[in-house]
Amino acid sequence: MMKPRLLLPGLMLLAGLVTIGAARGPECPCSGGGRALYNRKTEITMEGAVVNVETVACRRMSGSGTHITLRADGQPVRVHLGPSRFLEEKGLTIAEGDAMTITGSKVTCKSSQYVIAREVRRGELTVTLRDERGVPEWAGSGRRRGPWPPEE
Question: What is the mean pLDDT of the chain?
Answer without folding.
Answer: 79
